[in-house]
Write a structure and sequence with these properties.
alpha/beta; seven-stranded mixed beta sheet; five-stranded parallel beta sheet; 10 helices
């Protein structure tokens, strides 16, 4: 006999006639066992065992006598040969809803049809009370697991809805707000010079326009990276020379303000990648390296292209400050973008883009100071 922790429910509280369902509202609870089957001596034995284990017991000879109330039970034992049993199982909630219907079969009847209709298990008649109680106990365990899972999902959803999403939105706002504010300030300065008829040297005007363009280009790059993060279409991998893509990114950079940038390595290495995605990745990593390197008195960034037996690689090194170990573990997670700093969300987008190209993006703190990011792609070999 299976012991339970359920409170006692006196047998007198339930219908004495095993063929009749209670005329009152059925007790819909996790401790209730609903048995829907034709009468027989096995029903009495099951009833006694169920009540002895402090469980509620309800018996009905047909589904028609129960109606829609039967759908509220967790533990349902249904004779599969009854009229309407198949349709009832097919429309009943499944285990994911915390409902565990067990089909009762005639001896020798194959269980396949009942399981296909939605039964979670099958038992043969005449019923063995211990088998039925084992099913109930198993269902209770499943129900607790479902509840625990749901609690975890609800908790995680709450956390995402509060801290994680707020962090992502804050990081996104930072990536857009700062360059946009700089662009607006430059435009306002030009408008003011026009209003006050202040003469600006051609070189100064050109410099302001270039700064404005660079700021807007950064906003555009952020939005394009964000679009790639949620884009569903499959990337278009091609065999591309990595050197050309990186060189184009370097040529498009705004003034680096004294940061020495060096591109080195093998200019013939080809990787299997999507040109648009790799351009976004290289731009994000190189721009971040330039920003971080400015912390050093002699800022420098080194971009190297090389290959292994199976991979085409791009490494971006800077001599700025490395990330603290606690941040490195969550570096590429969008929900931790705000903790990484202004480039956190863009790094998460870059990681997502590399993964979409069947590659990998890694980070390491350099022992001599600074950081190194490595983009690892599939190597495209030259045809012999």
């Amino acid at each position: 006999m299976i012991s339970t922790d359920f409170p006692e429910h006196p047998e007198s509280a339930f219908p004495a006639d095993e063929e009749e369902a209670s005329s009152a509202t059925l007790p819909v609870a996790d401790t209730s066992v609903l048995l829907v089957c034709s009468p027989g001596p096995d029903v009495a034995r099951v009833r006694d065992a169920v009540l002895a284990n402090n469980l509620r017991f309800i018996h009905a000879a047909s589904l028609e006598r129960l109606g829609e109330e039967a759908r509220g039970f967790r533990h349902i034992f249904l004779e599969f040969g009854l009229s309407g049993a198949v349709n009832f199982l097919r429309t009943l909630g499944g285990e994911e809803d915390g409902v565990f219907p067990v089909a009762l079969l005639a001896r020798g009847e194959r269980p396949g049809t009942a399981l296909a209709a939605g039964a979670s298990a099958t038992l043969e008649r005449p019923l063995d009370a211990s088998d039925l109680l084992l099913c109930v106990n198993r269902n209770r365990i499943r129900l607790e697991q479902l509840r625990g899972w749901q609690e975890m999902v609800d908790r995680d959803r709450h956390q995402v809805a509060t801290s994680s999403v707020e962090g992502v939105l804050a990081a996104l706002g930072h990536e857009i707000r700062n360059p946009l504010a700089a662009a607006m300030a430059d435009v306002e300065y030009l408008l003011e010079s026009e209003t006050t008829q202040t003469e600006l040297a051609p070189s100064e005007r050109q410099g302001i326009l270039k700064d404005t363009f660079d700021s807007l280009q950064r906003v555009r790059s952020t939005l394009e990276s964000l679009a790639s993060l949620v884009r569903r279409e499959v990337p278009e991998p091609r065999k591309l020379v990595l050197w050309h893509i990186v060189q184009q990114v370097l040529d498009s950079l705004p003034q680096t303000q004294g940061v020495a940038i060096r591109l080195e390595g093998d200019p013939t290495v080809r990787g299997i990648c999507d040109e648009e995605l790799l351009t976004q990745v290289a731009s994000t990593l190189i721009r971040r390296a330039v920003d971080v390197a400015r912390e050093n008195a002699e800022p420098s960034v080194r971009v190297r292209i090389y290959s292994s037996e199976t991979e085409a690689r791009i490494s971006i090194r800077d001599n700025g400050s490395a990330l603290p170990p606690g941040m490195q573990a969550h570096l590429f997670e969008p929900t931790h973008a705000g903790q990484v700093g202004s480039s956190g969300l863009l790094l998460a987008m870059a990681h997502h883009a590399v993964v979409r190209m069947a590659g990998a993006l890694t980070y390491a703190a350099r022992t001599t100071g600074g950081s190194v990011f490595r983009v690892r792609l599939r190597l495209a070999r030259y045809e012999a």
